[in-house]
Specification:
There is one protein chain. The chain is an alpha/beta fold. It has three domains: about 5-40 and about 60-110 and about 245-305, FAD/NAD(P)-binding domain (3-Layer(bba) Sandwich), CATH 3.50.50; about 120-240, 3-Layer(bba) Sandwich (FAD/NAD(P)-binding domain), CATH 3.50.50; about 320-445, Rubrerythrin, domain 2. Helices cover about 20% and strands about 25% of the residues. The strands form eight sheets. Strands 3-2-1-7-19 form a five-stranded parallel beta sheet. A five-stranded parallel beta sheet has the order 9-16-10-11-12. A hairpin with a 2-residue loop joins strand 21 and strand 22.
């Protein structure tokens, strides 16, 4: 019987094992991981720090799941070397090599520590990154034992903001310092980022944007940070959440073709025969994804490839995030900066509305009537429609109904007030507002009646 060995038990490695088992009930599957826990979700790690949840609450697949699916696990063991020619790996603490017929590298990524002076020197002395359960437990103990009062989170991305919320829940003075001029720079544009900043600051969390951290201040213990404009901020704890770097050392030492990630083809094959790679650690067509939807999508493809059923090809993953961040519903999908794309004569159209009263922002990007991207902030109802129709041609009537942005037509002159092109929703216009063309009162406007297609 053939044996498939998977290095890494994160979302990519574990879902690869699950998909292989769904396709083949008999093949031997073994997962090896340097973590001592079975597969758990990293999304809720910040809640472990504030003790909102316990370690066991994070575990997605308990031991029974592995037994039921006949998947063997070797936990708390580090793979030291891969020998693709001999088809075996050497594991820390094991006398002999571990053989395989097919190998899947799912080593994921680690938090990136930018070139900040004194950052590496103070790791564990008030400087931390958050990637694992043990990281979260270490941060929690440090807060308790060192009587921490002030915390700074470097990085205003998804995990950085959730981390800030839970640190605030520990009753700490909390500040987020972001290098970019807006929060969630990969998910939001300037307007929605501004809306998010206001709401977070209302929670009592300070925000510093466009601020590059130059130095962590302190000798044996963190005292604060200094940013490039010379300002200093006091802190007893500095948490760095500034993106990721791929974990490619094993692959590189094994002679595999690597760049920023492990280079793979459309079947997620590496440059070595019978060696595949999946998840955060891979690079395909000069791109690294580092997002959960990509890991899940890739795991289906690599499962087929490993079983020599090359019917699925990887073409990349449309960036998509649907989550509740700091209690705010947010969906960001596809491309929402058409100005950054090559203008090839395509007909770009943007529909958007920023409802500051309702803390709601909607932005829809269309290209030749195809839905190419969207930001839905504080909006849940339109999410299924947008997700279902991304990269598809859409009907404007259905789109308008889905996103609840309408055209209001003046009964006097036919002038159109388009909520998708104006700052205010029609209902938020003053009651004494009049048509700018014929002075017809607001009551003289009627909402355009859109019809849903009968498919």
């Amino acid at each position: 019987m053939k044996k498939i060995l998977i290095i890494g038990n994160g979302v990519a490695g574990t879902f690869t094992a699950q998909n292989i088992r769904n396709l083949d009930k008999d093949i031997e599957i073994e997962i090896i991981s340097q973590e001592k826990y079975p597969y758990y979700t990293r999304v809720k790690l910040p809640e472990l720090i504030s003790e909102k949840i316990k370690t066991d609450d994070l575990i997605v697949f308990k031991e029974e799941w592995y037994q039921r699916n006949n998947i063997n696990t070797i936990l708390n063991k580090k793979v030291k070397r891969i020998h693709p020619e001999e088809k075996h790996v050497f594991v820390e603490g094991e006398s002999g090599p571990l053989s395989y017929d097919k190998l899947v590298i799912a080593t994921g990524s680690m938090p990136n520590i930018p070139p900040i002076k004194n950052a590496n020197e103070l790791v564990g002395k008030g400087v931390f990154t958050l990637r694992t359960i043990d990281n979260a437990l270490e941060i929690r103990e440090y807060i308790k034992n060192k009587d921490v009062q002030k915390a700074i989170i470097i990085g205003g991305g998804l995990l950085g903001l959730e981390l800030a919320k839970q640190i605030k829940n520990c009753d700490l003075d909390t500040m987020v310092v972001e290098f970019f001029p807006r929060l969630l720079p990969r998910q939001l544009d300037e307007e929605s980022g501004s809306l998010l900043k206001e709401q977070i600051e209302e929670m009592g969390i300070k925000i510093e944007l466009d601020a590059a951290t130059e130095e962590i201040v302190g000798n044996d213990q963190v005292k604060g940070i200094r940013i490039k404009d010379g300002r200093e901020f006091d802190a007893d704890l500095v948490l760095i959440q500034a993106g990721i770097k791929t974990t490619i050392e094993l692959a590189k030492e094994a002679g595999l073709d690597v760049n920023r990630g492990i280079n793979v083809n459309q079947f997620l094959e590496t440059s070595a025969e019978d060696v595949f790679a999946v998840g955060d650690c891979i690079e395909y067509k000069n791109q690294i994804w580092g997002i959960i939807p990509a890991c899940i999508e890739q795991s289906k493809i690599v499962a087929n490839s490993v079983l020599e059923n090359k019917t699925l090809e990887y073409v990349g993953t449309v960036p998509k995030n649907t989550l509740k961040i700091m209690g705010i519903d947010l969906t960001s999908i596809g491309m929402f900066f058409p100005e950054e794309q090559d203008q090839d004569g395509a007909d770009w159209e943007i529909l958007k509305n920023c409802d500051t009263k309702g803390n709601c922002y909607k932005k829809i990007v269309l290209k030749d009537n195809q839905l190419k991207g969207a930001i839905l902030y504080g909006e849940k109802e339109a999410v299924p429609y947008v997700t279902r129709n991304i990269d598809s041609e859409v009907n404007e009537d259905e789109l308008r109904l889905a996103i609840n942005l309408y055209e209001w037509i003046c009964g006097g002159c036919g002038n159109v007030y388009d909520e998708a092109k104006m700052e205010l929703l029609f209902k938020h216009l003053p009651e004494d507002w009049k048509c700018p063309k014929c002075n017809n009162p607001k009551s003289g406007f009627k909402k355009n009646k859109y019809e849903k297609l009968n498919n």
